[in-house]
User: Which sequence fits this backbone?
């Protein structure tokens, strides 16, 4: 009997109006435990005093760290009363699930059951998961099934910033579009180093359908743009050679325009001798042309004196396929061409480019990364409006002011 009296005294057990207080004579609910025994005898405890309390209200709401649990919460865990440096979190149950459909480790899991998966029992995902009735899923309702893809859109991979410099530390993002994702998980990846750069991808979930994977690319490159860097990607059952670093490219559907002019010349020349900003295709091929002296800028004869060219501006061999759509002769020299560094491929056997007759050139180009471009190429002689009374072109006796007008546009088709 003496032991029972001592125990009841030590607990400061109090019953007032059907309320039960442990360690407090001033219960704030049907059942109230004051863990630190620091609440006042009357009145409402301060937030700091409530921080060590547990309260059950008359409606069955439970508050931990608060005497007034929110009416909408069956359990309200509150650490607002704890000062910074002493706050605490919620620690849920842990388990090592064997698969996304495991019902053995936790038998007959209830729909909505929450558990922290350790990632050591077969289901490698590490983090909180819930049972949705048929499988364990991540907090954002992502599937934990192995991720698969329909395809990687390799020809639309981008790098930002798009260029790098040898010996200068670099950090950027490589975005890899994909289609046909099943919503499943993929593991983290580290690819490289390639040219001193490493591509890193954190673990996550594919979208259901299309999406983008964002790799962090970092390191100190051993080459400078436009020399490209190619990362071999394998993910979701698909592979791709991700080539980046040559600079900004053209996105599918984009159309890029260029216009400039050159004063009259009397000898053969290459356009890039006078135009340093000619368009560059796929950060690899400069759109250029060689103009011969035959019929140069004056005269009205039917001379073919313009040869369209693609120059490889990189330090590596570059492969290209060219299909001519409309030129002077329709000649095609474009199957499986390998163009050496600082060399060119020439298309057509000559295009009319005189004061009296100009022709256009249109050709399609596909590159090793499966990008498809259409190049529209128009060069014309402008004789500065010397015309006859009926609008016909007449011979310009003063050809010194003639100009060669250069128009080029590039459209990305795929």
Assistant:
């Amino acid at each position: 009997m003496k032991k029972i009296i001592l125990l009841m005294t030590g607990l400061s057990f109090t019953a007032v109006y059907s309320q039960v207080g442990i360690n407090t004579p001033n219960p704030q609910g049907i059942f109230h435990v004051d863990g630190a025994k620091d609440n006042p005898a009357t009145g409402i405890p301060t937030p700091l005093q409530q921080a060590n309390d547990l309260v059950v209200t008359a409606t069955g709401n439970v508050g931990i760290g608060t005497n007034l649990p929110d009416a909408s919460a069956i359990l309200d865990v509150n650490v607002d009363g704890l000062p910074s440096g002493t706050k605490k979190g919620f620690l849920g149950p842990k388990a090592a699930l064997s698969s996304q459909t495991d019902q053995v480790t936790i038998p007959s899991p209830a729909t909505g059951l929450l558990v922290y998966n350790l990632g050591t029992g077969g289901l490698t995902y590490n983090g909180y998961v819930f049972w949705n009735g048929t499988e364990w899923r991540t907090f954002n309702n992502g599937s934990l099934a192995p991720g698969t893809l329909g395809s990687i859109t390799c020809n639309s991979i981008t790098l930002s910033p798009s260029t790098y410099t040898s010996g200068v530390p670099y950090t950027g993002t490589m975005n890899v579009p994909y289609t046909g994702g099943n919503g499943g998980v993929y593991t983290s990846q580290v690819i490289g180093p390639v040219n001193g750069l490493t591509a890193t991808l954190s673990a996550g979930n594919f979208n259901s359908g299309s999406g983008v994977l964002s790799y962090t690319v970092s390191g100190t490159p051993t080459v400078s743009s436009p020399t490209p860097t190619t990362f071999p990607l394998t993910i979701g059952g698909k592979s791709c050679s991700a080539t980046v670093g040559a600079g900004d490219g053209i996105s599918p559907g984009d159309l890029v325009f260029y216009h400039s002019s050159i004063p009259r010349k009397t000898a053969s020349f290459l356009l890039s001798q006078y135009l340093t900003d000619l368009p560059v295709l796929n950060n690899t091929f400069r759109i250029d042309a060689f103009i011969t002296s035959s019929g140069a800028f004056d005269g009205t004869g039917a001379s073919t004196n313009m040869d369209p060219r693609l120059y490889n501006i990189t330090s590596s061999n570059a492969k290209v396929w060219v299909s001519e759509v409309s030129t002077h002769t329709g000649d095609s020299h474009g199957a499986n061409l390998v163009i050496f560094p600082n060399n060119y491929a020439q298309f057509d056997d000559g295009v009319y480019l005189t004061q009296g007759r100009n022709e256009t050139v249109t050709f399609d180009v596909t590159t090793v990364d499966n990008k498809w471009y259409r190049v529209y190429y128009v060069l014309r002689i402008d004789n500065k409006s010397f015309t006859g009374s009926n609008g016909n072109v007449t011979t310009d006796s003063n050809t010194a002011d003639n100009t060669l007008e250069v128009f080029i546009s590039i459209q990305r088709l795929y």
About this structure: The CA atoms of residues 354 and 367 lie 32 Å apart. DSSP finds two helices and 32 strands in the chain.
